[in-house]
Design goal:
Strand content: 35-45%
Number of helices: 3
CATH architecture: 2-Layer Sandwich
Number of domains: 1
Structural class: alpha+beta
Low-confidence stretches: none
Strand order of the largest sheet: 1-2-6-3
Distance between the termini: 31 Å
Mean pLDDT: 92
CATH topology: Alpha-Beta Plaits
Shape: globular
Order of helices and strands: HEHEHEEEE
Radius of gyration: 15 Å
Helix content: 25-40%
């Protein structure tokens, strides 16, 4: 099976916390697939953005029950990946 990095990384996660982390700590946040491992995330970041991550931390966010306009539903379960880069490396998400 051929490795396809575009199927591992879903999208960059752009929030206030993620923006603050990328400016101060050189940490970037991405949404990844449920089956992604830390090594596959590292390989995907290396191929897509041409930078070498120092380390990767993952966080599983469970689905939550929500009510929107009186209708019950739920949010999706997501896996967040915090990608740490060495000083001087940057990823342009814009």
């Amino acid at each position: 099976m051929k490795f396809d990095p575009s199927t591992i990384i879903i999208r960059p996660r752009i929030t206030e916390k993620a923006a603050a982390l990328s400016e101060t700590g050189n940490v970037y946040t991405f949404e990844v697939t449920q089956t992604a491992t830390k090594t596959t995330i590292k390989r995907a970041i290396k191929e897509i953005y041409k930078v070498t991550p120092i380390r990767v931390n993952t966080v599983n966010l469970k689905a939550k029950a929500v009510v929107v306009k009186g209708k019950k539903g739920s949010t999706k379960a997501v896996v967040k990946a915090y990608v740490y880069l060495k000083k001087g490396d940057k990823i342009d998400l814009a």
